[in-house]
Amino acid sequence: MRREEVATLAGVSAELVRSLITDEAVGRTFELFATAGGPPQDWPGLFAQTTPDRPGSLDGVRDAATLPIDAEPQRVRRDLDAGVRRSGSAVSPTSR
Known about the structure:
By secondary structure, the protein is an all-alpha fold.
């Protein structure tokens, strides 16, 4: 593989930052991968094409429910509850 075909850390970082400042990305889980060509130009349009995550859910829209919250270690449940309290969410992760 040639050097110019490899995604750089700086390039991936720039794309992730772009997602943080694009309103259409809020509440959407996505995967970032390298393809040939330059970076996308229409970030809002790209995110508008994705399916939003379920409101209040800790999982992405297409995440499989493979591990129930009550099967997580106590320290993980405690961290999840603390994160929900900080975010002001009405849904407790341990009660889903």
